[in-house]
Amino acid sequence: MIQRKQTVYLLLSVILMAIYSYMPIGSMQASEQSYTFSILGLSSSLNNSVVGFTNYWPLIIPFAFTALMNLVAIFMYKRRQQQAKLTILSMFLQLGVLALTIVYAYYLLPLQVENLKLALQFSLAFPVVNIVLTYLALKGIRKDEALIKSMDRIR
């Protein structure tokens, strides 16, 4: 049953996560250097050449795990209860990734670089859209489960 609505929502969520991983979340300016903050890390550039790159593993690991969970949930269509549990867990992890991203952007980055001026990009809204898509998928999964239970009662 890969043609269900929730499959489309989960697939859109995975695609949006893939796009989000390569888009900058914010750009920062500090004295002469400019920085670009993405989910993969912080890259610093001087005169349009990349000088350094710092990975943020506490952001990368739950983000990748969430994308993998949504991808696995797509193929669990025969086990709807487990699919719903995995989708709920994915939603909570997505909330955690969003919270960690905000903590990194507003609290940890200014500690690493002095005189930092942060300008956030529109891609910061992607995790919120992912949470909404995952919620819509969960709603569809529960609707399918209710339909199956009602069909069992008729027999």
- Give me the side-by-side strand order of the main sheet: 4-3-2-1-5
What global shape is seen?
elongated
Please estimate the helix content.
55-70%
Contiguous helical run count = 4
Beta strands, count = 5
Largest sheet: 5 strands, antiparallel
Structural class comes to: alpha+beta
From the N-terminal CA to the C-terminal CA, the straight-line distance is: 22 Å
H and E order: HEEEEHHEH
Kindly report the average pLDDT value: 81
Rg value? 19 Å
Low-pLDDT segments, ≥5 res:
none
Quaternary structure type: single chain
Strand fraction equals 15-25%
Key words describing this protein structure:
single chain, 155 residues, alpha+beta, 4 helices, 5 strands, elongated
Question: Can you walk me through this structure?
Answer:
This protein has a domain of 101 residues. The protein is 63% helix and 19% strand. α1 packs antiparallel against α2, α1 packs antiparallel against α4 and α2 runs antiparallel to α3. The longest helix has 33 residues. The mean pLDDT is 81. It is elongated and about 70 Å long. The chain contains 4 helices and 5 strands. By secondary structure, it is an alpha+beta fold.
